[in-house]
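Deliverable D5.2: sample structural annotation.
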Amino acid sequence: MKSLVVLAKKGGLPKIQHMDAGTLSWIEATGLSFGLRKNKCEVAPFVLESVKRYVPKQSWFFNRKCYSSLHGVRHISRVVANVANLALGRKFNSRSIRNVLIAASLHDIGRHYDRKDLEHSRRAADWFSSNVSFVQSSFGVNLVDNDIEEIYSTICYHNSVYSKTKNDVFYVKYMETIELLKTADAMDRYRLPNLRWWPNERFFVIKPTLGELKFAFSLLVFSEQEHLKTGTNYLSVLNSLQ
């Protein structure tokens, strides 16, 4: 079977995409040209606690086949880790941090497939709106109306284009949490099999440090290596943080 990086060059990526050894080797080699290499980083307790707590169940995914794909639970758990890591170095109130962690855990569950699926954010947000009580009990949180609105909006706008949404009422109201999720999400784009899809700082509203990018890259490589070796998904990310 051809690797994703080969298929991407030919414009022939399948709808559901899974990491392979050839693509991961290309990611590691390409990262070196950006000063990125896998290194075991010190993981703050808050990051580890967040990844342990905010884990979506496979049954929440609109397409169960996406659970183990490029936008599945491994990606989601890394985005949760990136959110927590970014939040540690910036001034966000604790309630908004919790809300964006919840949004991160749900942001891609609405996907039908890995290729362009512009409505996935709305589907995920609507699922959250219909399952608030279930999410509260699953994550052990209590959400008031403002929390629900913030989480819903953050999920909805996580794949929006800034120039098209910068004046939207809910984007303006929750811009900080939306952009925190967007940055954390983009920091896991190193997994994508074409350089033009990798993180580009021109599009960051919240600018990650080089250290934060190195953390994201290392977590990606270690967790995908663990996944290819063991076949695990969420646990491959958790084990890479411990």
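Annotation notes: The chain is about 55% helix and 0% strand. Residues 2 and 177 are 38 Å apart (CA to CA).
The annotation will be released with the project's public dataset once the embargo ends.
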